[in-house]
């Protein structure tokens, strides 16, 4: 049953690492921003409360000092008595309108209660962008005194933004480290799964690290051992059956050859030859799973392919080599020769001839192609024909002698040596088999 895949949101990155980065960093930044906002609000309230708690007493003392000083001494005390949020002006101040905020009205009332009615205290608003209001006094000698208040606060230290930037950098580093620790085992597991082979010589996962990672590594290693064991048992059974069948088939063929020549005898001999071919192919398929046991060597690719082509040409087979070929890849030579031999035999059988060539991808990897002009394979069947004992009705039948194992052997042997076999339709008709070298 096919399960419909839900579309991924466009804003969500494709990799798990990027998603973890986004989630952890966004969560930490939201928490940090909330903490910063709460701290700012609390410091603002505290600073406002402290200012208003000390404002009335400080202003009362300052007004009393100005009232007792001689008129010519008062200008020298203006700088001494000013503060960050308010200054004193010797004069009537600026004209304005009535107090606009509850905070300004409360401040003027507190100051009026502190200094008393003798100073005729009143206030007015000068501006609201930013807020600025004045409190007016009349000293005992009749001189006007004005207190100009600008209620701006600096509840946050100037160095705090730098600390916030440093915290963001630390959050990024911690997020990167945490995501790396969380996703590295997954990447290692994926690499080990990609490199897993039918034999037991695949890479083993390290069982060190956290408990969950060690448990997953042990489970993967155990699974790999079980798969390798099952495949070995299956191939061993196939090889044993194919081997044990050779003796009775040979004995039957000898008995049939001893009979008088007739149409029935020829038919029986054809059946026995087909059965012998099937048994040999079964043995070859069983052995192809262990092609990776051969030691890899560096070869001259041009000389290697020329030798293969000359062997076929000496046997009178129409096999040709196209284009100049260079390169010295490190491969398992005997296994690669068996793969190419199966592909060439397949091309000759169904196309009448075979053409061998070499291509290179932009990264420099070598790809050996075997092409023919036969009937080809339908697009939807290209993957299926690589399965063992799968035959196309139109071309793999008793008349051609196909067993359904030639391409399967080539595919399995290519995978065993670390390569990849891919089939494709040829322009103008025919089949192209591409062997990507490891």
Describe this structure in words.
It contains nine helices and eleven strands. With 438 residues, it is of the alpha+beta class. Strands 6-8-9-11-10 form a five-stranded mixed β-sheet. Strand 10 and strand 11 (431-436) form a beta hairpin. Helix 5 (211-257) packs antiparallel against helix 6 (263-288).
Which helices and strands occur, and which strands form pairs?
Elements: H1 16-68, H2 78-81, E1 86-89, H3 102-115, E2 122-128, E3 131-138, E4 144-149, H4 160-194, H5 211-257, H6 263-288, E5 297-298, H7 301-314, E6 319-321, E7 330-331, H8 333-351, E8 354-360, E9 366-372, H9 406-416, E10 420-425, E11 431-436
Strands of the largest sheet, in order across it?
6-8-9-11-10
Strand content: 5-15%
Low-pLDDT residue spans: 394-398
- Record field, number of beta strands: 11
Content-based structural category: alpha+beta
Overall pLDDT: 79
| Distinct helical segment count | 9
Helix content: 40-55%
The major β-sheet equals: 5 strands, mixed
- What's the alpha carbon Rg, rounded to whole Å? 46 Å
| H and E order | HHEHEEEHHHEHEEHEEHEE
First-last Cα distance: 35 Å
Shape: rod-shaped
What's the quick description here?
This protein has about 450 residues and is of the alpha+beta class. The protein is built from 9 helices and 11 strands.
